Amino acid sequence: MSDFFTKLLNKISKNVSRRKPTKWNKNQIKLDLLQLEDRITPSNSPIIVTTNAASGTGSLDAAITLANTTAGDDIIDFNFASVTSPYTITLAGALPNIIDATSVIRDSNSQPIGTAGTVTINGLGASSLTISGSVGGFSIFNIASGGNLTISGVTVTGAKTSSNGGGFDNNGTLSISNSTITLNSSSSNANGGGAGGIFNNTGATLTVSNSTITSNKAKSGAGIHNFSGTVTVSNSTISANQTYSDRGGAIYNNTGGTLIVANSTLSDNSSVYAGGGICNKGVATISNTTIANNKTFYGGGISNEGGTITLTSSTIATNSASINGGGIDNRGILNIANTIIANSNTGGDYAGGGTVNLINGATAANNIVTLGSFPLWATTEPTLNLGSLTNNGGPTKTIALTSSTPASVTAGGNASISNNPIYANGLDQRGYTRSTTAPSIGAYEFNGTAPAAPGAPTNVTGTAGNGQVALTWTAPSSNGGAVR
After folding, report:
1. Three-class secondary structure of residue 261 per DSSP
2. 3-class secondary structure, 397
3. CB atoms closer than 10 angstroms to residue 461
């Protein structure tokens, strides 16, 4: 017996013998550890996916199952042993649900050892790792109420389901970054139907950043359908999504939903009825965003159906509506400043009997239309000489102002709006710095200042362990400027 336990027994013996000296026998002492190590919430090592098989040992399916049965937060990484990049995991059925993070996890004796925690999936890059549901008949990822999934560096594709959300059906908290969601479809009619890409259910929270959602199909909300949850999209592209019978080619923000779109581009989406780009019935905030080349019957760029939209420093151009509102069809409340609505192919730049309010500090000179006359909140400039939708720097495509664009546009914005951190924080959609005195109107700042190139980290070291390498470094003095 170790010195520690000998001293412990002697101490116990002395203390007890003072009370019951005639009955104490230290040779009868028995110590039980009672599996105390199982009662500590673990600091989990990453779970490593080693095979692209649909299921079985080392698969993504098995990794999520393990995460769901292990107490504490879990990280899933990939290190394929026998296949070469690019990697594809072709599923035979839906992946295991991401369970409620507060679910109690028990040991083999049914004793509670902690809660399930969150799940983080770190992919190898959207061009290197594809998760395919091409077999059909299921949603690829399902996040239960209370579940919490963070996923990055993947392409999610090929789902064909009769349920909501071909790529993702979210009832909890879902964060997607640096990923592509493409070629998924839903034929569901439930809850208004839809979301080939992502369905965000009542009370759920979705965050999408630095990602692409493209070529998905559904009854409504082909890219994203927000059914009374909260959705935030930033630095992302939502393009070429299509509804086959209803609203919201790119995004459908349904009644009760909260939507924030910033520094993003919604282009070439279409819907059968309303909102080729966005259909809004809830509360939406759109800033530093380009909405272009979308089409439908009502509201080629945006259809506001009884909801409230705050629209700042954005460019809505070359959209089409076969009936009304090529740019915007507003039948709710529109709060607006520093925005271009221009060059609609059909339906006019603006239509609808809703209310339009200038945001505090803005004037009609700070908003531009090319078609129609709306003197209470916009100035008409028939010819803007805008560029085409292309890569002008930054994470998404934009429509540039040119040297032939009127000065009323290139320097006609309201600085109190564009420099307000609530709206644009002094940056345009690309992350370029805006003028502090005479900013441009729209998502693109004419003669904006590009962010500085980021410096290089120093003192980089790597420490091996648990099949991973932990990197540490000293951050550079310049990070290239913040891009919202």
Report:
1. strand
2. coil
3. 9
* DSSP symbols for 276-315: SSEEESSEEEEES-EEES-EEEE-SSEEESS-EEEEES-E
Mean pLDDT of the chain: 89
Q: Could you tell me if 227 and 199 are in contact, meaning their C-beta atoms sit under 8 angstroms apart?
A: yes
> What does the alpha-carbon distance between residue 232 and residue 262 come to, in Å, rounded to a whole number?
8
Question: What DSSP letter does each residue of 419-479 carry, written as one string?
Answer: T-TTTTTTB-TTSPBPPSSSPPSSSS-TTPBPPPPPPPPEEEEEEEETTEEEEEEEPPS--
Contacts of residue 388, Cβ cutoff 8 Å, sequence gap at least 6: 399
pLDDT at residue 249 tops 90:
yes
pLDDT tens digits, 165-214:
999 999 999 999 999 999 999 998 876 678 899 999 999 999 999 999 99
Going by C-beta distance under 8 Å and a sequence separation of 6 or more, which residues neighbour residue 254? Answer: 191, 192, 221, 225, 226, 227, 228, 281, 282
When pLDDT is averaged across residues 287-303 and rounded to a whole number, the result is: 98
Q: Are 263 and 428 in contact (CB under 8 A)?
A: no
Query: How far apart, in whole angstroms, are the C-alpha atoms of residue 9 and residue 72?
Result: 35
The encoded tokens of residue 215 equal 């070529």
Instruction: Give the residue among 335, 327, 258 at the shortest CA–CA distance from 298.
Output: 327
Mean pLDDT, residues 97-122 taken together: 97
Cα–Cα distance for residue pair 138/186, rounded to 1 Å: 9
State the residue for tokens 């910033």.
262
Own/partner contacts of 51-56, CB < 8 Å, gap of 24 or more, are 51/80, 51/81, 51/82, 52/80, 52/83, 52/87, 52/88, 52/89, 52/90, 53/89, 54/89, 54/90, 54/91, 54/92, 54/93, 55/92
| Short-list 339, 286, 333, 276, CA closest to 305 | 333
Q: Both ends of the chain: CA-CA distance in Å?
A: 62
Q: What is the pTM of this model?
A: 0.87
